[in-house]
Amino acid sequence: MSRAGLKEEVVKRVEGMSEDIIRLCSDLVRIPSENPPGDMTEIAGFASDWLSDRGLSPRSYEPEKGAISILAEVGEGRPRLILNGHMDVVPAGDRGRWSFDPYSGEVRDGKVLGRGATDMKGGLACVMSALVACLEALEVLPGSVVLSLVPDEETGGEKGTGWLVEQGLLDGDACIIGEPSTIYASLVGEKGVCWLRLKARGRPAHGSMPMLGVNAIEKAVRAMELLRELPSVEVEIPEDVREVVDSSKMVLRFFLAQMGVGEPLLSEAVNAIDHLTVNFGVISGGVKVNVVPDACTLDVDIRVPAGLSPGDVKAKVDEMLEEAGLEEVECELVHGSEPNYTPPSEAIYRLLAANAREVLGLEIRPFFMTGASDARFLRLKGIPTVHYGPGELNLAHAYDEFVRTDHLVMATKVIAATIVDFLGGRAVP
Question: I need a surface site. Which of 15, 58, 96, 352 has the fewest CB within 10 A?
Fold first, then answer.
């Protein structure tokens, strides 16, 4: 059978699996795999059993207790396509602010309800189901597919995707991550992360005579005012991603406007894609209200657009502090990750876009996200990686989270068709 014929059969198989895909998502949501605390024992066991029942041979890895990853490979050799998804979810938070049980997994009005339905139990169900739908096709196609289910994307990914890549257990020629992108877009890049810790020192004195001391909190406040200027720094966006950035700004503007965000906040939020953003996350200083504080620590989350690195940002902050006479304020780079992206000219994106058009009749857009994901571990190893999965972006980590049942099936069709085309060597202009 031709590649096109195989793909047609695979898409039909996904249609026949529709109820199973929805049920799988519901079952996954019912397992409260919150991170923290990050123990994936129950959900990893469920996923492993589900895959085994369908003829796969999953392997588990546990570099730390509860941080379990599942790998399941079909086929041999190259080309090798990675499917990836994370099993962990953020905590449900205040149960009183949910209008339904966050771990009910109830299917109602064309939606699967619950924590993680969008981020990303829905996408998890899609990549698992897409692989199963392709099993017969993979018997005749060259190459291999490896499914990787990981435990800790919500807390940085170091024990899951990061560890698997570092150990040489996860390698391939391209990767599709089922993270929520909506069925109308594919996330092809993300900003970098620069977490800085500023430490201001002062001199203690009695609170009734503050002029005799040096207030470390006031120094930290002066540093905060300096860092507020960072979003105005002009950034030279690399040529091969400039069009994606422009497209992303249009897409984000549309989604935020649909959510009711108005000007001038709307323009400010859209500019976050290609500018530095600054969040003062934690501040700690002083020992007692009537003592001039001699120490203050400030933790700052700065997101870095393509064209800059965390090291560039750290150097800029050091320069700003020195010019302001605050050189004694220590600045430490606590955590950093580089901006990373996969150009839309890569085969994996072109095939995904072609199948969204041919299977669903949708013209998807490439999108550059403001947050970070496990994609960075793969991209920084030279593996072209894109996100494609169901879910409304504004529902991730939100109360009353849900995913649309029809989008679960639609995304699975596109992913399954892309598997066939990627291994089958389809060329897309």
Answer: 96
